[in-house]
TrEMBL record, chain A:
<dbReference type="Pfam" id="PF00441">
    <property type="entry name" value="Acyl-CoA_dh_1"/>
</dbReference>
<dbReference type="GO" id="GO:0005886">
    <property type="term" value="C:plasma membrane"/>
</dbReference>
<protein>
    <submittedName>
        <fullName>Pimeloyl-CoA dehydrogenase large subunit</fullName>
    </submittedName>
</protein>
<dbReference type="Pfam" id="PF02771">
    <property type="entry name" value="Acyl-CoA_dh_N"/>
</dbReference>
<keyword id="KW-0560">Oxidoreductase</keyword>
<dbReference type="GO" id="GO:0050660">
    <property type="term" value="F:flavin adenine dinucleotide binding"/>
</dbReference>
<dbReference type="InterPro" id="IPR009100">
    <property type="entry name" value="AcylCoA_DH/oxidase_NM_dom_sf"/>
</dbReference>
<dbReference type="InterPro" id="IPR036250">
    <property type="entry name" value="AcylCo_DH-like_C"/>
</dbReference>
<dbReference type="InterPro" id="IPR037069">
    <property type="entry name" value="AcylCoA_DH/ox_N_sf"/>
</dbReference>
TrEMBL record, chain B:
<keyword id="KW-0285">Flavoprotein</keyword>
<feature type="domain" description="Acyl-CoA dehydrogenase/oxidase N-terminal">
    <location>
        <begin position="6"/>
        <end position="118"/>
    </location>
</feature>
<dbReference type="InterPro" id="IPR046373">
    <property type="entry name" value="Acyl-CoA_Oxase/DH_mid-dom_sf"/>
</dbReference>
<dbReference type="Pfam" id="PF02770">
    <property type="entry name" value="Acyl-CoA_dh_M"/>
</dbReference>
<protein>
    <submittedName>
        <fullName>Pimeloyl-CoA dehydrogenase small subunit</fullName>
    </submittedName>
</protein>
<feature type="domain" description="Acyl-CoA oxidase/dehydrogenase middle">
    <location>
        <begin position="134"/>
        <end position="206"/>
    </location>
</feature>
<dbReference type="InterPro" id="IPR037069">
    <property type="entry name" value="AcylCoA_DH/ox_N_sf"/>
</dbReference>
<dbReference type="InterPro" id="IPR013786">
    <property type="entry name" value="AcylCoA_DH/ox_N"/>
</dbReference>
<dbReference type="GO" id="GO:0003995">
    <property type="term" value="F:acyl-CoA dehydrogenase activity"/>
</dbReference>
Length: 394, 376
């Protein structure tokens, strides 16, 4: 056992670090530090910079633009990305539809979509959830009825993140009602410009607009846009949802937030905003979350290491999602506490040019929006069900 | 970066775990607890035969030169078996002082007997009415006629009643000193008691007791530096022991959830209990990570070592409490009974938190050190 990175890994880290330092535009870094909402253009711009370096879709198969990195390299890359305040690119493109097309796509689909997806020439959204089908995703109802060489879609999706920007959607639709509910679901790709699609915004508690309702009214989708076999969309979706092991806990992000918390704490202590008693209590609370973060970080590294040795630490891998999201939420809670009354007004309260002003103002929206991480991607309750069943045999 | 055990380490872990499971089943432990000394000489001799008592000592002292990871594996196995024998007191605590401070002559006089399981040692440091888990003591050592005279009172001396030799901390005027004291010498009185976890503890009184100059370990001011290291090693060992006790508790509990029937089904089919079992698993895995971190930090840079060890101790304090409490709760009334293993593990986990600084103590230390992560 050994905690140190190898010289090669350190060299890799330095290379990644240098790249982020030079390649990440200053205005983007500033937005990330201030927790400002990223515009579509911001994400596109950054993903193209990454893609030009060959680092936009690193976990795809090498033949489609991926990198044959070791688990440790992946871990380092993600951590450096977070510490550099770099955005992550579009998860729908990079982590979801890309890998699915690499695995299940026809040659035609691969040729048409993969390179464009990696470069964010196509902006994807994910149409899975419906008003009646969230955790119980397989109970979805939106129908796709075969009509010649088209499917005709009717029904509604909900919570569709960034559908307002999307060029294309990948989604699950019911092509057959007769069997078990997991059967008869098909995975389709659709152009968001197709007649009959209506996107309606949903405002969320952070005051933002990311989520949407999407309505389908006799929307015609070519059969050529079916991924995998008709009625076998559930298998495709399971592949997509089987999240990547490394990085799922977002330790890098939490670490970066922690260092911001620390510097804000010092500042508020120095300028007298915090009483000594408050300072002590806060130092104690910070130590508390740091201990847990350290434990989670080590657990993540154990998983990375086990992966490098051909797997094994399964139990640890599933813990990462639940614990990691709890951690992220705890961080935002602390930021809000620390911001105190200054965080009440989202407009600027600080002195002009105050480097912390932006993210103090963002503390509350950030806290509210981060409540989502334990809900989406399989809620933490669902994660626990899975762990109980597959690992504990309960 | 690598978290894999070497083949030898794997073998060590498997052998020790199996040996303890086979020779130290729960009824044996209970029998040992009821004996005069509260532990089993036979079981301890078994550990000696396997070479485990000599593990951390250098080869020239008759040991095996094992490191933090080996110690972690042994302590985890001891934790699983809930062993009450004086491994921690003699090998980890007192043994640590010998390794880090004793002269070759002192080691030559003691280590062979220690390794053979015949010489029991205990570290007498804690005192009543003084800041806990610090290096401060009121016990005094005065230089008198070529030797030292010791006066003071110690509490919570683990395995103190069985000790042949005590290592006593005392202020010397030149800093903290550590002294080898024959437990049966004149001027030493020892009063034994049982810890709630079954492990014997003792109060020790030293009244004008005299030792020779050769009883001093290192020089008169070395005590702080030695204990600082030894306590961190001991905390790492306790973290591993806690992981063993938690793992055992967790396994028993999951097993119980699968077998205990209520309302016509196994209680493990109730989601309210499943999620709590998953929470236990998470605490166990986080603790395991921290035990590894602690073990690997021992040889490292001092500041980082202190932070890592404090973090590990804080984590296992919390995890041990959650795992213990949940296990008892999910067992229902059987979990409360004195004859059931889970309750004993719970008690040991509780004691581990109390030893060498509990969760709050270490969180406060971390807060004072500026946190877990050294400032970049
Ligand atoms: C910000 C955000 C963005 C999203 N983006 C998208 C997107 O782009 N595309 C998309 O398709 N979907 C998206 N989703 C939807 C997301 O996948 C669902 O919200 C999620 O699957 C949970 O479904 P639900 O909201 O219907 O909750 P429900 O399934 O109704 O659950 C409600 C509560 O009950 C609990 N619960 C449900 N079943 C069980 C059970 N068996 N045992 C214990 N507890 C249970 C849940 O954990 C939750 O706490 C997004 C959600 C959010 C919050």
């Amino acid at each position: 056992m050994n905690l140190d990175f190898t010289p090669e890994e350190i060299a890799f880290r330095d290379e990644v670090r240098a790249f982020f330092r030079e390649a990440l535009p200053d205005d983007l870094r500033r937005k990330m530090i201030d927790r400002e909402h990223l515009e579509k253009d911001d994400t596109v711009r950054w993903q193209r910079i990454l893609n030009a370096r060959g680092w936009a879709v690193t976990h795809w198969p090498v033949q489609y633009g991926g990198q044959a990195w070791t688990p440790a390299q992946r871990y380092i890359f993600q951590e450096e990305m977070a510490l550099a305040h770099a955005p992550e690119g579009s998860p729908f493109n990079v982590n979801m539809i890309g890998p699915v097309l690499c695995r299940f796509g026809t040659d035609e689909q691969k040729a048409r979509f993969l390179a464009a997806t990696a470069n964010l020439d196509i902006w994807w959204c994910q149409g899975f959830s419906e008003p009646g089908a969230g955790s119980d995703l397989a109970s979805l109802k939106t129908s796709a009825v075969r009509d010649g060489d088209h499917y005709v879609l009717n029904g509604q999706k909900i919570w569709t993140t960034q559908a307002q920007h999307a060029d294309w959607m990948f989604g699950l639709f019911r092509t057959d009602n007769s069997g078990r509910k997991q059967q008869g679901i098909s995975f389709l790709l659709l152009d968001m410009g197709t007649p009959g699609i209506t996107v309606r915004p949903i405002e969320t508690i952070d005051g933002g607009h990311d989520a949407n309702e999407v309505f389908f009214d006799d929307v015609r989708v070519p059969v050529a846009n079916l991924v995998g076999e008709e009625g076998k969309g559930w298998d495709v979706a399971k592949h997509l949802l089987g999240s990547e092991r490394s990085g799922i806990a977002r330790i890098g992000l939490s670490k970066e937030r922690l260092s911001q918390l620390r510097s804000l704490e010092r500042r508020l202590a120095d300028d007298g905003t915090l009483t000594t008693a408050e300072q002590q209590r806060l130092a104690f609370k910070l130590a508390e979350v740091e201990v847990e973060l350290r434990a989670l970080e080590l657990t993540q590294l154990r998983v990375v290491s086990a992966d490098a040795h051909g797997g094994g630490a399964n139990a640890a891998a599933s813990i990462l999602k639940v614990k990691g999201t709890e951690m992220q939420q705890r961080m935002t809670e602390l930021v809000l506490e620390l911001a105190g009354p200054a965080g009440l007004a989202t407009a600027a309260h600080g002195a002009p040019g105050d480097p912390d002003q932006g993210w103090i103002a963002a503390a509350a929206p950030f806290y509210f929006t981060m409540r989502k991480v334990s809900i989406f991607g399989g809620s933490n309750e669902i994660q626990k069900n899975i762990i109980a069943k597959t690992m504990l045999g309960l | 970066m690598d978290f894999e055990l070497t083949d030898e380490q794997k073998m060590l872990s498997e052998t020790v775990t199996r040996y303890i499971a086979e020779t130290y089943e729960f009824s044996k432990r209970e029998h040992a607890l009821r004996g005069d000394e509260g532990w089993s000489r036979e079981a301890y001799a078994g550990l000696a035969e396997m070479g485990l008592l000599g593990l951390p000592f250098a080869e020239e002292d008759g040991g095996f030169g094992g490191g933090g990871v080996e110690m972690m594996l042994i302590m985890e196995a001891i934790g699983r078996g809930l062993m009450v024998e004086p491994y921690f007191a003699t090998v980890v605590l007192a043994g640590g002082v010998l390794r880090h401070g004793a002269s070759a002559a002192q080691r030559a006089g003691i280590v062979p007997g220690l390794v053979a399981g015949e010489h029991i040692l205990a570290l007498a440091h804690d005192e009543a009415g003084i800041a806990r888990h610090t290096l401060a003591v009121r016990t005094t050592a005065r230089e008198t006629g070529g030797g030292w005279t010791l006066d003071g009172a110690k509490i919570a001396v683990i395995h103190g009643q069985s000790a042949d030799t005590l290592i006593v901390s005392a202020t010397t005027g030149q800093g903290l000193g550590l002294f080898l004291v024959d437990a049966r010498a004149e001027g030493v009185s020892i009063e034994g008691a049982r810890g709630y976890d079954g492990v014997p503890v003792a109060s020790v009184r030293l009244s004008g007791m005299t030792v020779g100059a050769d009883a001093l370990i290192g020089t008169a001011g070395d005590g702080e530096a030695i204990l600082d290291k030894v306590f961190d090693e001991a905390r790492a060992a306790l973290a591993a022991e806690a992981v063993g006790a938690m793992a055992e508790t967790f396994d028993i509990t999951v097993d119980y959830l699968k077998t205990r029937q209520q309302f016509g089904v196994a209680i493990g089919s109730f989601q309210a209990l499943q999620h709590r079992a998953v929470d236990m698993l998470m605490q166990l895995e986080l603790s395991r990570s921290m035990a590894v971190l602690a073990a690997l930090s021992l040889g490292g840079e001092v500041d980082q070592r202190r932070r890592n060890i404090a973090a590990a101790k804080a984590q296992i304090g919390k995890s041990g409490r959650i795992v213990g409490q949940e296990a008892v709760q999910m067992h229902g009334a059987i979990g409360i009974t004195a004859e059931y293993k889970v309750g004993h593990a719970f008690k040991r986990l509780t004691a581990i938190d109390a030893l060498l600084g509990d969760r709050d103590h270490h969180l406060a230390r971390l807060a004072a050190m500026g946190g877990v992560y050294a400032a970049a």
